[in-house]
Amino acid sequence: MSTSIPRFMVAAPSSGSGKTVVTCALLRALARRGLACAAFKCGPDYLDTKHHAAAAGQTSYNLDTFMASATHVQEVYARHSQTADICITEGVMGLFDGYDNMAGSSAELAGLLHLPVILVVNARSTAYTVAAILYGFKHFRPDIQIAGAVFNFVGSESHYTYLQQACRDAGVEALGYLPKCKGIEIPSRHLGLNIDSEFCFDEFADRIACQVEQTVGIDRLLDICSCATAPSSCLPGEPNSHASDMRIAIACDEAFNFIYPENLRVLEQKGKLTFFSPLYDSELPVSDLVYLPGGYPEFYLSRLSENRTMRQSILNYCQNGGHLFAECGGMMYLGEYITDTDGHSYPMCGFLPQGATMENMKLKLGYRKIFLNGQEYRGHEFHYSRIIPGQSPLPSIARVTNAKGMEVDTPVYRSGHVTASYIHFYWGDLPPFFI
Fold first, then answer.
1. Phi-psi bin for 18: left (phi > 0), alpha (psi -120 to 50), beta?
2. What is the 3-state secondary structure (H, E, C) of 276-324?
């Protein structure tokens, strides 16, 4: 039987409007009320989900309509909504921005899951003009329900009164605001995640939660966003426990932690998972498969390099025919060296005949289609580093295109039983090719 709980998407007209701050503020405020909050992120972003998890005290899950089928997205949402009191999904970019017009956008996901939308509007340097913005969002796609608006960067209560009038005239309910205040803004971020060691996210989450309790009508927001949840009969049966005795070792620490929970769920069905740290542990655990995910190895180059026994352990494993999959930061670690932004190079595992550098950083990002072994896989690419090929560079074993089918030069390497790429693969919906 379906039940009715508050379910909604936090979206915005554009990036930089404050979606993550509003989402985390609501998650922390509701968690402090003793409510179980299921958190989700539209798109492939690993970093906002980390903020969600820190704010709510629960894992946040990606919902991506490019990397996974609509059925899989619905199933993931339904499964993690079953025991929740409230479900909050953070959108990506502007509401209608996708990889191809609306395809892959927050609006597409909201339509797929029948989620009302709370629009976070940047009110800095504007007032009544937002009436036209809200009116346009409400009427551009009437099938997407704009349930209300929360304003960010509001200068004063007087400023908010103008915004309220704009809402009345546009026919969109004003649900409150966040003031223009540095204390409720996330400081400088790298790839979207705060890296300031003096910044305490837990204190920040409490601070923004207190703010939304004061200036956002949370109870009214929850009331207008109550929707029926998916009935339990819509969920597939839970798979049996892991089908084999395969031992799967996964790197997970400050340097390597970009891991989709749904990917882990698939690996759990394949074997027994063990987590290890290239920073702290001296050697690999006994393994039949090793997974080196992406992360921030560039921030821990000295420590990774100084852990010689771990580097040698991984090198021995690869040279002796071990099965290993490495992506992005994991691939960089598997090479001969990583060079930092100042030109200093640090020895790494030395298995792949190449290095990586952070010098002259340039962002490379986008969805990827990977054609390999007669099968199409999906993933995304997001990094600032680049590969420096060695004297005998490895060829790519796959054809890779962007979301629109244009070929890109992102390689997928294979040496022995080791596969590596800059691409972050999503295999929650399709079995991984490396097992």
1. left
2. ECCCCCCCCCCCCEEEECEECHHHCHHHHHHCHHHHHHHHHHHHCCCEE
The span from the CA of 433 to the CA of 289, in Å, is 13
Per-residue pLDDT tens digits for 167-213: 999 999 999 999 998 888 776 554 444 455 557 889 999 999 999 99
328 is catalytic: yes
Segment 253-278, tens digit of pLDDT: 999 999 999 999 999 999 999 999 99
Nearest to 66 by CA among 379, 322, 357, 289: 379
CA atoms within 13 A on the CB side of 78: 23
Tokens found for residue 145: 């329900």
Distance between CA 251 and CA 200 in Å, rounded? 25
**Annotated active-site residue in 24, 37, 318, 328:** 328
Give one DSSP letter per residue of 2-52, joined into a string: --EEEEEEEE-SSTTSSHHHHHHHHHHHHHHTT--EEEEEESS-SHHHHHH
Using one digit for the tens of pLDDT, what is the confidence trace for 335-344? 999 999 999 9
